[in-house]
């Protein structure tokens, strides 16, 4: 069973002016290349029939990197919406309050982690096994799928995520990212 490249859930221009169509195309080119690499590398591994999530959990080395990048991108698309932005909603908002410090504090902490990561990687809002919220960032194809946390929100920190729109200003990319975050989708992922 070949891994499929998921359709973008909105038009290429839908996230403008925050994220441009050219930037979405850059992500998609990377995403497509990862999916093609996964399908090549899967041959003969015995993992061919597994869904992508399970390939990520079980693979090592280059197959892991390509599979995690493919899964992370599909997840990233579902974290963004032309009707996104604002503040967390529903149960997620209540959890945020229990965590203390308010949404502004959490966003600053998320930005601090994202800006502090040297090179390419991902920043995540996750739900810990005890139900609390957590923030994490990791290099390369790092993904919560390899641990016990439930991914709620992903921010792509590879250079192609911001260079076309913001050049070397990762902080401005993060400002744009928060304008299109789909809090309803993040809330629906809570366990
Ligand atoms: Fe990307």
What is the structure about, briefly put?
By secondary structure, the protein is mainly α. It has eight helices and three strands; from the N terminus they run H-H-H-H-H-E-E-E-H-H-H. It has two domains: 59 residues, Helix Hairpins (Orthogonal Bundle); 99 residues, 3-Layer(bab) Sandwich (minor pseudopilin epsh fold).
Describe, in plain words, how this protein is organized in 3D.
GO terms for molecular function: metal ion binding; superoxide dismutase activity. There is one protein chain. The protein is mainly α and 191 residues long. It has 2 domains: 21-79, Helix Hairpins (Orthogonal Bundle), CATH 1.10.287; 90-188, minor pseudopilin epsh fold. The chain contains 8 helices and 3 strands, in the order H-H-H-H-H-E-E-E-H-H-H. The chain has helices at residues 21-42, 52-58, 61-79, 90-99, 102-116, 163-166, 170-179, 183-188, and strands at 121-127, 133-139, 150-156. The chain has a 3-stranded antiparallel β-sheet. Strand 1 and strand 2 (133-139) form a beta hairpin. The radius of gyration is 16 Å and the shape is globular. The structure holds fe (ii) ion. Fe (ii) ion binds at residues 27, 30, 73, 156, 158, 160-161. The site of fe (ii) ion has 7 residues, from helix 1.
Topology:
Layout: H1 21-42, H2 52-58, H3 61-79, H4 90-99, H5 102-116, E1 121-127, E2 133-139, E3 150-156, H6 163-166, H7 170-179, H8 183-188
Antiparallel strand pairs: 1-2, 1-3
Helix pairs in contact: 1-3, 2-3
The structure holds fe (ii) ion.
The site of fe (ii) ion has 7 residues, from helix 1.
């Amino acid at each position: 069973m070949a891994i499929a490249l998921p359709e973008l859930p909105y038009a290429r221009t839908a996230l403008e002016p925050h994220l441009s169509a050219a930037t979405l195309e850059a992500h998609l080119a990377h995403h497509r290349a990862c999916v093609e690499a996964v399908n090549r590398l899967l041959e003969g591994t015995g993992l061919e029939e597994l869904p992508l999530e399970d390939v990520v959990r079980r693979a090592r080395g280059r197959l892991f990197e390509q599979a995690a990048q493919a899964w992370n991108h599909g997840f990233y698309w579902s974290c963004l919406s032309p009707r996104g932005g604002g503040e967390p909603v529903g149960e997620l908002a209540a959890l945020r309050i229990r965590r203390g410090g308010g949404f502004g504090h959490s966003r600053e902490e998320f930005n601090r982690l994202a800006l502090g990561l040297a090179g390419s990687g991902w920043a995540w809002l996750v739900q810990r096994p005890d139900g609390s919220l957590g923030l994490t960032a990791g290099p390369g194809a790092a993904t919560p799928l390899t641990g016990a946390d439930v991914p709620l929100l992903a921010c792509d920190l590879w250079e192609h995520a911001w260079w076309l729109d913001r050049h070397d200003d990762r902080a401005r990319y993060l400002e744009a990212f928060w304008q299109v975050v789909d809090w309803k989708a993040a809330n629906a992922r809570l366990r």
